[in-house]
Amino acid sequence: MSPPPRTRAIRTAAIPPASPAPPAPPAPTVRPSAPGRTARPSPLRAGARRAAAPRAVAARTVRAVRAVPAGHWDLALAGGFLLLMAVERIGAADELHGGLPAALLLSAAVAGPLAVRRSRPLAGYLVGAAALSVEALFVLPSTVSPYADLVGLYSLGLYAPRRRAWFGPFAALLGMAAYFADLGHDYPVIPAGVLFLWLLGWAVGYGTARRAEEREAARQRLRREVVTEERARLARELHDSVGHTLNVVLVQAGAARRLLDREPDRTRELLLGMEHTGRDALDDLDRVLGLLRRGAGHGDGDPGEDGEGAAPQPGLADLERLADRLGQAGPRVRLRIDPAARRVPRSLDVSAYRIVQEALTNTVKHAGARNVEVTVRCAAGRLAIEVSDDGRGAPAGYAPGRGLLGVAERVSMLGGRVEHGPGGAVRPDGPGSGPGDGSADGSGDGFRLRAELPVL
Asked: Which are the contacts of 106, defined by CB distance < 8 A and separation ≥ 6?
């Protein structure tokens, strides 16, 4: 028996060695789905889409209905009533006294005025009521025409002016009398009940119109109040900023003119102060213009707000610079500011500065004072501001001007109180000056302004 053949030796001799092939890219991993399970949208998402579909359709329908002009709806209403009355008249043609054409003409006269129930409510209702009376007396009372008359009466109360709307109840009374001319003696309750319902419809329309007028009048009053308050606020800002700086510039210019020949160095300082004051005035004017631009679009804001992009409003920290600037114009200003007063809210900080600024402006402009004392204290939840001088004081029976009125308005808006009048003489620190030095005749008792603002 011969040995088995060597298959391995024959295979190696017949097939040469092949070069190694490049590795194949890995196949993407596919996660097998669970048996019997197919890809479906989330039930919650599907339910939300199904619930949102009716709302979207309803919203589109409402927008489409609102887009239709009101006059078109009135035409459709008039046409619907005319169609119902025509069908009724054709069905009762044998019972009509004046014939079918006259009945249809009267039906058109009853239903047609509904097309102008918004623009001509009184004329439309009078025409319809007259046609209804003629129809009931000479043709045949209709069961549809009274409802068209009810819609016209309601429209008269709703759309007519106050005086013209009062013609409705009297016209309805005459129309009901004509309509129930043959039935009033047999069934007196029916005419009374129908008349009550008709008058109730008119009252509903009339009351709705009057309430709408009252709401519109309230909106107009509120708009006027907002505009008035905004104008007053802007007037205060202009007076406080531009008016103050212009007064200081005028006083500095007068002093520089008097000292030009005698003290050139002092004149140079005054001119430099005028330059700084003018720059401050430009900053204030830019801020007020920012308030005007913002107020033109919104008309809101409070006295302590700064306009966007404008220079910030000054506060109590700027009183020293204000005192130095006024000191160049003549009076000596002495400041006494409580450290706690520098931590008040921004609205109080700005208002306190404006109050002091107005008081000092009045001192420079009217008092002729040599010494002014400014005291700002914060205690017991109140910010107390007092400005007193040794000038001429207030004349008998004086009336506050725009500046003091602006101070009163500002203090009132913040819930405080203000008082001003004579009796504010202060004694300067230096020798040779008395309380009445600012008076032309030596008898002045000065002027004092005191304001208290609650600290919230």
From this structure: 131, 134, 135, 139
Asked whether residue 168 is domain-assigned, the answer is yes
Total structural domains in the chain? 2
Output the pLDDT for position 182. Answer: 67
Q: Over the Cα atoms of the chain, what is R_g?
A: 45
Burial string for 213-241 (b: 16+ CB within 10 Å, else e) reads eeeeeeeeeeeeeeeeebeebeebbbbbb
**DSSP-derived pairing of the beta strands 371-379 and 382-389:** antiparallel
**Is residue 447 scored above 70 in pLDDT?**
yes
Grade residue 44 by pLDDT with cuts at 50, 70 and 90: low
Would you state the pLDDT for residue 455?
87
pLDDT at 400: 79
Q: Are 241 and 212 in contact (CB under 8 A)?
A: no
Is 197 a domain residue?
no
Q: Which of 164, 182, 200 delimits the end of a domain?
A: 182
Helices and strands in the chain: count of H runs, count of E runs: 14, 5
- Residue the block writes with tokens 């519109």: 216
Whether pLDDT at 98 is above 90: no
Say if 235 falls within a structural domain: no
DSSP-assigned letter for residue 330: S
Question: Of 182, 197, 215, which marks where a domain is finished?
Answer: 182
Question: Domain range for residue 162?
Answer: 69-182
304 vs 120, which has greater pLDDT? Answer: 120
